[in-house]
Amino acid sequence: MLYCSYLHRRLSLSLAYLHLHSIVAPCILKFMALKARKGKKMTETENFKRARDNETDDRYLGTGWVRFHHFDVVEKTEHNVRVEARKHDPLADGKKGQSYSGEWLFVDYNARDVYAPLRDEPDLFVKFASLADEDPGTRDGRYDMMLEWIKKYGVLGLMPAGNFGPDLRSDREESLFLFWYEVHRAARCMALYKAATGPSRLLKRSGVPGKTLAEKRQLAISILTDNVNHTLKRHCYPKLYYQVRKDNGETADVGLSWGFHSLLGAMYLQMAWRITSRRCEAPGCNNIIGFHKRSDAETCNKTCKERRRYHRNRAAAK
To answer: Is 61 found in the same domain as 198?
Structure first.
C-alpha cells in the first residue's frame, strides 16, 4: 500500500513537471525573442560597412573625390544658391610688384585633399540621408548645412563638367535646390528599404499604397530599386582592374568592380551593396551577416538564431 502511494506521488510530480515544462518552455523562448528585439541593435553604420566588405574588395575602393576649402556664391535667388570652389589666384590678393612662383598655375591651393569615399566613409549614404531629419526648411538654414557638408565630404557632382563629356561631373559646383532634393530622395530610399525588409509595422507606417502587406512590400521594393538603378546608370560605371607583375610580366590580379562619376554615385553604390548583401533571416531583422561568418550562416547572431528557431517551431505547431 505504501509502495503504491509512493508511485502515485512520483507519477503526480512527473505529470506536474511535464505540465509546467509545457507552459514555461514557450515563455522562455518568447522571452529570448523579446530580448533579441530589445537588445543592442546593430547600427546602419555597421550594416553598411559589413555590406561593403561582403560585396567588394579593398583594392577596388581607391577612386578619389576632391574636397575644397572655400566656396564662392556665383548665383543667388529666392529659393536657390549656386556655389563654386574656384581655383585660388595668389595674384588677386598679392601686393603690387610681388613675384610668385609659376607653381600656382598647376597647383590648386583651394583644394584641401583627395579622399576615397568608398573606403574612408563606408556609411556616407546614411549620413547624407540623415540630413533630412535636420532640414531647417529655410534657404539660409539649408545653405549653412549644405556648405558644412560639401566642405567636409565634397560636392555631390550633380553639375556637368563643362564641355568635357556628358558623363563627367563637376567636383567644384553645387546647387542648394538639387542638394536638398537628393537629401530627401536618399532619406526616402532608406525608409523604403527598412519598410521592405523590416518588421511589418514599419511597412504599415511607410505610406506605401497597397491592399495587403505583400502588395505594399512589392511596391516598396520596386520604387527603391528604380531609384537606385536610375542613379547607378547615370553616375556609375563598371571598371576592370588589371595588374601585371613587373618581374615576369604575368597577370597578377584581374577583377571587375565599379567606379563613379560623382559623389552621389559613390553613395548609391553603398546603398546597392546594402541591398544585395546577405541579410539575417530572423523575423524583424534586416542586419547584414558579416563576411567573417560561415557561408551557410542564416542569422547575424545567436539571439536572432534563437528567435528564428522559435518562430519556426510555432509555425510548425499550427
So the answer is: yes
